[in-house]
Amino acid sequence: MSSSSLAEISQRRAAKPHSGMFLRMLLRAAILGRGHAASAVLAMVVAAAVATSLLNLSVDIESKLHKEFRSYGANVVVVAREDAKLPEGSLDEVESALGSHGVAVPFAYAVAQTSSGQLVVVSGTDFDKVRELDSWWRVSVWPHGPGEVLVGEKAAAVVSPSGGPFDLSFQGRTRQFVPTGLLRTGGAEDSRIYLSLADLEAWTGVVPSSIEIAVSGSPAEVDRMVGTLVKALPDAEVRPVRQILEGEARVLGKTRATLIAAAALVIVTSALCVLSTLIGWVFDHRRDFAIMKALGASEWLITGFFAAESAALGVIGAMIGFGIGIGVAAWIGRVNFHAPVIPRFSVLPWVLGGSIAVALLAAGLPMSLLRRVQPAVILRGEE
Amino acid sequence: MFLRLVFESFRREKRRKALAGAAIVLGVAVATAMIAVATDIGDKINRELRGYGANLLVTPQQDTLDVEIGGVNLKPSGDGSYLNEADLPKIRGTFWHNNIVGFAPMLPVQVNVDVGRASRRTLVGTYFLKKLTLGKEDFLTGVRITHPWWHVAGAWPDDNSEDVLVGEHLARKAGLKPGEAIEIAGQPHRVAGILSASGPEDDQIVAPLGLAQQILGRKGAVRRLYVSALTKPEDALARRDPHILAENPELFERWYCSPYVQSIAYQLEEAIPHSHAEPIRQVAQNEGVILARIEGLMLWITAAALVASALAVSAAMATAIFERRREVGLMKALGARNALIAALFFAEATLLALLGGCLGFLGGAWLARQIGRSIFDAAITVDPVLLPVILFIAVIVTFAGSAVAIRHAVKFDPVYALRGEG
Hints:
The complex is a heterodimer. Chain A folds into two domains: about 15-65 and about 250-380, no CATH class; about 75-240, no CATH class. Chain A is built from 13 helices and ten strands. Chain A has helices at about 5-15, 20-30, 35-70, 90-100, 125-135, 155-160, 195-205, 220-230, 240-285, 285-295, 300-335, 345-370, 375-380; strands spanning about 75-80, 100-115, 120-125, 140, 150, 165-170, 175-185, 190-195, 210-215, 235-240. In chain A, helix 2 (about 20-30) crosses helix 11 (about 300-335) and helix 3 runs antiparallel to helix 12 (about 345-370). The longest helix of chain A has about 45 residues, at about 240-285. Chain A is rod-shaped. The two termini of chain A are about 30 Å apart. Chain B is an alpha+beta fold. Chain B has two domains: about 1-45 and about 290-420, no CATH class; about 55-280, no CATH class. Chain B has helices at about 1-10, 15-50, 145, 170-175, 210-215, 240-245, 250-255, 260-270, 280-320, 325-335, 340-375, 385-410, 415-420; strands spanning about 55-60, 70, 70-75, 85, 100-115, 115-125, 130-135, 135-140, 150-155, 165, 180-185, 185-195, 205-210, 220, 225-230, 275-280. Chain B has a six-stranded mixed beta barrel with strand order 5-6-13-10-12-11. In chain B, a hairpin with a 1-residue loop joins strand 5 and strand 6 (about 115-125). In chain B, helix 11 runs antiparallel to helix 12. The longest helix of chain B is centred in the C-terminal third of the chain and has 42 residues, at about 280-320. Chain B is elongated and about 105 Å long. Chain B starts with a helix and ends with a helix.
């Protein structure tokens, strides 16, 4: 064979459409090179799984922690303007504005007198809702029936040291109450007596003067709810409780920042792990590269072939890793937050894109080195 | 000969050694930083949780019943018992004084205020940011530490002055601005700033403790004391009654020497005569849950970081050794035993792991510091005791990563390797 015909053949081959051959080579490479590809895919899977679970967690963490933070109680309070009453129907307005995004509890306050002439604050409220709102109240037994009351620890020492029924009078009207449960909070509630709203209204005629609301959701959602409430209740005062809101914002912000920093570190590390494995894998295939080149394949074809194979590994690894990562995130959610982390498919394009980018980078780096080398040198095993 | 082989391998194969070394440095750095952050995150978040304010309330033992609705006291002031202001610095003498971030005494008194028309208002005396001394130690405490959500337009008053803060609702009603004067109990006082607290204080006047005592006519009187302390989440031991625990000295000591909110309350009662300290459950109970969640989360992420860095290190080692099959073939052809070849590779791996581990440890310490600085405004320091542990782990991981590749390499027939068919 003369050198001119060799060149001719190689030229003809280079000019021919390669699509059929290209796919066949990809397929054969995937089947025959299973062993080598497996370790690269494994690295890819682990990296993608770690990235997926961390991204998923950091997206979901806020809603999970917001829920925990709601156990601090009300973050918005509606009170009557000074020298005025809370307009009737305020609670209904608040509840319709709130929907299922929180809980609202009315409180009415009056000052009653014990039989020994001591003054004590009595408060009417909705026990079922208080239980939901103020989870930190330590209550021995929650009252149910009419006339049953919850007595704060300090108040109990004054009104009923023995735990028996006691009398309270309000503007000359005296009622007898049965202390059902003891209340301990370490706050102002300890020196009060709580009864049901209906009992208090029937006895004193006092109506609720404040509504404590726990709005669930992010600070922006709480802000929006405050705006809605201000519009719905023009005659009342809506106050966000800054102690709760600022504390939450602070802790959440720091936690999220730490999580993101950690996630970035982990993702960079696992991307590098994938990179080094893939580079090793491509280097391992330099013989294929040399043979293809010797057979007259154009450099673009070879580069394309390696890139496509590498990207295919990336996609397979990313898909498997995504599935595992979602599972890991859900499991961490269950173990740590006792609630599953919802799979976020919005994370998928990021993981997929990242994997393909790393895979292409891993293919590109050794290719640029190999391109300069004569195929004969590789084929003779000298490089 | 063996040492020379190892040495030459490092001298001549700089590129490969650098690649594997870089992976080790990076892996160790990430692992070190994550371990440091994870062990410190509890303390850091605990400090952030202090943003919720005091978690302990100290009241006089013979406390009378509060008759207070929405911050308005409905009881004639003057009766009841008080704590003694002179006892407050003793808080710094308790066992857990380092955990006490700050405290603020409160003394509410009813005063006649001239805000356009005469009206009866509550004036609360407190510390803003007062310097107290116990023994040789100076420390600052007051509402600026315990109530971080209080915002002041204007300036905070000095604790030794007679200037006051006026709550924003009251100020709006009276048309007061910072720098103007307000007549309290017949005396004019300068309004240093307008207080926005989003609480009952918005309708009150907040003044230095001395002024409130002077109005009340009782020197050294304090009605309540809010204490903000770093605490350990409650567990079964924390909930035990100290008076029953006292029968078991060993258990009692463990309870006493753990920073539970209950044991700090107990110690506050010991430090301040005739007092009763009670955890504020709204703050104290919830922080344990939040802390546990965040710590748990960081633990998982640290585990993920450790797995990722271990993988990165082993992958780099495996690649580095795989590339040297031909060298193995040559050595075998020259009569080297498998054990010798494995020992050579392991010696190189150990050396690489130790070098890379030390560098990585330094890098990780720097990384942890940066994370602490930029997120928590406080450095996260890495305990040097961690170094041997980290190095040990680095060596183990490097070994594990190399093991499979080395086994492959020594099993490889030298003929194939030498013919370049590997």
